[in-house]
From TrEMBL:
Keywords: Oxidoreductase. GO terms for molecular function: oxidoreductase activity. It comes from Allorhizobium taibaishanense. The keyword Oxidoreductase applies. The keyword DNA damage does not apply. Signal peptide: none annotated. It comes from the Bacteria. This is Aldo/keto reductase. GO terms for cellular component: cytoplasm. PANTHER family: AFLATOXIN B1 ALDEHYDE REDUCTASE, ALDO-KETO REDUCTASE YAKC [NADP(+)]. InterPro entries: Aldo-Keto_reductase, NAD(P)_OxRdtase_dom_sf, NADP_OxRdtase_dom. Residues 15-306 form the NADP-dependent oxidoreductase domain.
Length: 329
């Protein structure tokens, strides 16, 4: 496994990380045994960065990872945790709470569910509109001093917020969506991260399966994607046309569609670590195959011609959620 340093203040980590959200029902039912087997296969392959959120399955994902990391595996990985999203017993989204007391309470529960004494990277899932980012980062910094957190990260925030956060405490990475079909960070956010020496952990590199070459409409009602504009109606058909063009380029280069999409993100810089949302071993193996690919400038150009910047139909989240994204303002 290739490794890179995550930001100028972070640790060495695997060139690809494992995103575990899909193992806790966000994309419909997931098999617990296969999920843990996939986690183990990732670690066996040298993946060291494991990403989760305390609101994935209302704690289910953290408990699943905690179970999977028993028997001496905890020290082989870096666990990245997002917090702050509020949900009710029915799973509805209620908003965000990143106040100092919420930071420390959420962390306490996270440590218990994961069965660990520290979190490697702790980050607010979104900017809390009611709490200055300085207060949120300051509270996490308290937990760094106390030894419960090693590094501080951010998620889905814009350039100004990144600067304000970095002025309080070193930020190791920004977690944000980035793919051939979601390239908004290239304008201001990515340059800011590079100026400040902050790494990027890119989620949605396959746009939640849309550009994986495996997704076809329709989506089950229990699937998160059923509420995503890019997967609905005419938008879905227009986006699948982009996938067809991407697949044609990938096949001509001897790659699967998913491998081409992941290789493109990898080619954008060693400061960008893709998070692969695999929940089955076969999908993990396919994704890791992208590490063996080397894209030439002509290859990159061909992929970007197949999926031009801004060509996606529909926003990456529903309108209500987009309004909460500091990264989109």
């Amino acid at each position: 496994m290739q490794t890179v340093k995550l930001g100028k203040t972070g640790s060495q980590t695997s060139r690809i990380g494992l995103g575990c959200m899909g193992m806790s029902g966000m994309y419909g039912p997931a098999d617990r045994t296969e999920s843990i087997a996939t986690l183990h296969a990732a670690i066996d392959a040298g993946v060291t960065l494991i990403d989760t959120g305390d609101f994935y399955g209302m704690g289910h994902n953290e408990m699943l990872i905690g179970e999977g990391l028993k028997e001496g595996l905890r020290d082989k990985v870096q666990i990245s945790v997002k917090f702050g999203a509020q949900r009710d017993p029915a799973g509805n989204w209620l908003g965000y709470d990143a106040s100092p007391s919420a930071v420390k309470t959420a962390l306490a529960y996270t440590l218990q569910r994961l069965g660990t004494d520290h979190i490697d990277i702790y980050r607010p899932a979104r900017l809390d509109p009611n709490v200055p980012i300085e207060e949120t980062i300051g509270a996490i910094a308290d937990m760094v001093k106390a030894g419960y957190v090693k590094h501080i990260g951010l998620s889905e925030v814009g350039a100004e917020t990144i600067r304000r956060a970095a002025a309080v405490h070193p930020i190791v990475d920004l977690q944000i969506e980035y793919s051939l079909i979601s390239r908004g960070i290239e304008d201001a956010i990515l340059p800011t991260c590079r100026e400040l020496g902050i790494g990027v952990t890119a989620y949605g590199v396959l746009s939640r399966g849309l550009i994986s070459g495996h997704w076809t409409a329709p989506t089950a009602p229990t699937d998160f994607r059923a509420h995503s504009p890019r997967f609905q109606g005419d938008n879905a058909q227009r986006n699948l046309a982009l996938v067809e063009a991407l697949t044609a380029v990938a096949k001509a280069k001897g790659m699967t569609t998913a491998q081409a999409a992941i290789a493109w993100v990898l080619a954008k810089g060693e400061d960008i670590v893709p998070l692969i949302g695999a929940r089955r071993r076969e999908r993990l193996a396919e994704s890791l195959g992208a590490l063996d690919l080397s894209l030439s400038p002509n290859d990159i150009e061909a992929l970007e011609q197949a999926v031009p910047k801004g060509a996606a139909a529909g926003s990456r989240y529903a309108e209500g959620q987009m309004a909460h994204l500091d990264s989109e303002k």
